[in-house]
Amino acid sequence: MSDECVFCQIAAGEIPAQVLLEDEEAIVFHDLNPQAPTHLLVIPRRHVESTGTLETEDGELAGHLLLTAARAARQAGIHDSGYRVVANTGNEGGQTVPHLHLHVLGGRPMSWPPG
Which residues are tagged catalytic? Predict the structure, then answer.
């Protein structure tokens, strides 16, 4: 855990969040600044800075995060209508918290391109 990382603090239960689901590897909670009717964040419990810092040995974690995003979409009721999973990486990619997280967005039609 990084002591200064807000997502590490949420994962540790030190900062409250509206948690949808959690397990030993990940936690899913509602975004405080939603960009869609349903906007969830999927984070690993252990600190990983971004998709750009994932290593080969993190493959199981990366797969688990995607499966957790799909599980969260089902639980939030957006699985059947469709949803978007986004991982912002770095400043120009729009990452504002330096802790790997997936955005799960749904509840409305998504446009393309997203940026």
Answer: 101
